[in-house]
Amino acid sequence: MDTAPGRERAVPRAAFSASPGPSDTAAAGGDAEASFIAPFERVFATLKRLASNYATLAVLDVRRAAVQFAWLVAGGIFIAVLVVTAWLAAVIAVAVWLIGSGMSWPAVLLIAAGLNLVGAAVVGVRIKHVFDDVPFSATLHQIKTDASDPARVT
User: Fold this and answer.
1) To the nearest whole percent, how much of the chain has pLDDT over 70?
2) What is the pTM of this model?
3) pLDDT, tens digit, 9 for 90 and up, residues 65-76
């Protein structure tokens, strides 16, 4: 039940009716005070329980999101290590092939460095377009827009 701790149900069912019952009219001042406060105590207890349930739900959602984020970061790191290893293996394979065909070590190392620079340039060009728009640009524009501006859309 929704009663205060250590107290039995203090409010009779008739307290919520439009007309007072026979026991209500004969009640002393203490009973009238309890019947006035008890609904507020129950409402407060219900609101407290509701807030607690929402807080628990939020904590569980944050915990789940944190675990998912940790898996995402760990997976990203693992994928990055595998991609770097594959790239290095490809560069080493080209270097071994060039050495096997009679090329000198300095020339092979220069070609390997050139392959790494070309790879970095390709990634840089692909990533360049990610930063075309400033993060939160629409939000910042909305905040900075003057309220008297007739072109402002509300």
Assistant:
1) 72
2) 0.50
3) 999 999 999 999
Query: Which residue did the predictor score with more confidence, 36 or 30?
Result: 36
C-alpha distance from residue 89 to each of 42, 96, 112 (Å): 70, 10, 11
Q: List the one residue out of 96, 94, 98, 101 whose CA is nearest residue 118.
A: 94
Query: Tokens 């307290």 map to which residue?
Result: 15
More confidently predicted of 58 and 140 = 58
Q: Which of 85, 86, 91, 121 is nearest to 108 (CA)?
A: 91
Tokens representing residue 133 in the block: 């728009």
